[in-house]
Amino acid sequence: MKIKTNIAFFFLTCSVGSFAQNKISPKDTEVWEPVPEIVSVNEKGIPSDAIILLSDKVNEFVNHQGEPIAWTYEDGIMTVAPRKKGEPKNKNVYTKQKFGDCQLHLEFRTPIDNEGVAQRNGNSGVFLQTLYEIQVLNSHKNVTYSNGQLGAIYKQSIPMANPAKPMGEWQTYDIVFTAPVWEGNKVVKKASMTAFINGVLVQNHFELGGPTTFVGKPKYAAKDHGKKPLMLQEHNNYVSYRNIWIREL
Ligand code: MG
Question: Cα(232) to centroid of ligand 1, in Å?
Answer without folding.
Answer: 9
